[in-house]
Amino acid sequence: MQELRPIDDTLFRTMAKGNIILVEHIVRLSLNRDDIKILSVNTQDDIHLFKDSHSVILDCLAVDSEGNLYNIEVQATNTGNLRKRARYISSAIDVKYTLEAGEKDYNKIKDQIVIFLMEDDIFDKGKQLYEFKRYDDQSKLSLDDGSRIIYINAKNKGREELDNLMQSLISSDYKTMKDDVIRECTMYYKTSEIGEDEVCEAMREYVARNVEKSFKSGRAEALLDLVKKGNITLDCAIENSKLPKEEFLSIAKSLGYNI
Q: Pfam families, per this entry (predicted)?
């Protein structure tokens, strides 16, 4: 548990669950605004719009005092096409949350912002923050539809407060964190019995959702993949593999996992 970082899915979702202070802090720093007031926070919301469509599980979805939506996604490893993933997430949120059934007034659609907090710079342009809006390619005229996608990485430097936030998110040692809010929250989940129990339960639930149909080496590989992505700890993987520790580590070695 001690090796988990706030940027890892399981720990972040546990920390953010119902934590308005934490989420408001992240949103304000991400947008460089101190006037945003978060009213509600929901984690692990499963959006499955249609029978045969791909579902989306959101890390954290928050609503502010004006009804605007903020989706915070943490990304410890650069896996998959995050640009297309952001598009899919944004569309799913729009369909499920921004307009009630039967409502025809599109002026009632509130702003919606997807924020990716990442360890690496997927664009490799040396910037800390990338913000994307829709606009006309020739005239640069903004569509001004209230939709934005923001990518923030820990690799590059920018505003000091944002630097402190991102470096704290990728640290496993709360004692070295410079962001006070992240440090206090991480310390609680790593040092208190109640906090540790909540994280361990979250890891067990994550395992149940992702590898319940896998067996033996297939199950071990699925668990190892979760360890690699920072979703669960190695001890949690061994416990849920139902294998002796030596056999699990042997399988890990044969599969090329350096643990």
A: PDDEXK_2 (PF12784)
Instruction: Please give the angle made by the CA atoms of 163, 203 and 120, to the nearest 5 degrees.
Output: 30
Rounded CA-CA distance 38/63 in Å is: 6
Query: Are residues 129 and 30 both part of a single domain?
Result: yes
Q: Which domain holds residue 170?
A: 9-191
CB-based contact 47:92 (threshold 8 Å) = yes
H/E element holding 228? helix 216-228
pTM of the model: 0.79
Whether 73 and 110 share a structural domain: yes
3-state DSSP: the chain helix, strand, coil percent, rounded to 5? 45, 20, 40
- Are 50 and 174 within one domain? yes
Q: Which helix H or strand E contains 62, and what residues bound it?
A: strand 56-64
Distance of alpha carbon 101 from alpha carbon 231, whole angstroms: 36
Separation of alpha carbons 38 and 43, rounded Å? 14
Number of domains in the chain: 2
